[in-house]
Write a structure and sequence with these properties.
about 190 residues; 2 helices; about 85% helix; about 0% strand; flat
Length: about 190
């Protein structure tokens, strides 16, 4: 009996050892997966920090360019106001500004004139296009009417050949509408 108990105890030890090994393998697998997930998350954060650093670098560059623009504006204003002390320089600058203003106004006048000329031409062009469309529609209607007449006469010929009787020729318009409208018969529902 002691042999049986020893063998059961050995079996239990082996099973316990196998179970501990399986559990530790599962734990290792889970820990490895968590480590990989953490590593991926860390990489994403590093990429986000790099992107943020790039954006901040661009903003810093814009601040520098804005600073340069401010310097140019302030410097130009200071020069302009400083040249006022020397009347000759001031007059030269004011003449140049006047020339530029006149040139811009002249160009604006040309643009306005072209716009007005184009606006006046639009109704004429639209009328010409409408007239052309009207003529095209009239020509198409005439051709369709001729085709209908030709088809009607061919149909009459075919009917007269198949029946052996002569029929009256088709009217010149191809279609003759009735001049009278049929009267509706009174029913018991009419009052």
């Amino acid at each position: 009996m002691s042999d049986a108990m020893a063998s059961v105890a050995d079996r239990l030890r082996v099973e316990r050892h196998d179970m501990e090994r399986r559990m530790s393998d599962g734990r290792r697998r889970r820990l490895r997966q968590k480590l990989e997930a953490t590593h991926d998350e860390l990489e994403r954060e590093r990429e986000a920090r790099r992107a943020l650093a790039d954006v901040l670098g661009n903003i810093e560059g814009r601040r520098r360019s804005r600073g340069i623009l401010r310097l140019v504006i302030v410097g130009g204003t200071a020069y302009f106001l400083g040249t006022r002390a020397g009347r000759e320089q001031y007059d030269a600058v004011m003449r140049k500004i006047g020339e530029i203003r006149a040139s811009v106004q002249h160009r604006m006048g040309d643009v306005r004139a072209r716009a007005m000329d184009t606006a006046q031409r639009v109704p004429d062009a639209m009328a010409d296009a409408a007239q052309s469309i009207k003529q095209d529609v009239a020509e198409t209607a005439r051709q369709v009417s001729e085709d209908v007449r030709a088809g009607a006469s061919k149909a009459d010929e075919h009917v007269s050949e198949s029946t052996g009787r002569a029929t009256a020729p088709a009217a010149t318009s191809g279609f003759t509408p009735s001049t009278t409208t049929p009267q509706r018969q009174r029913t018991t529902l009419d009052v």
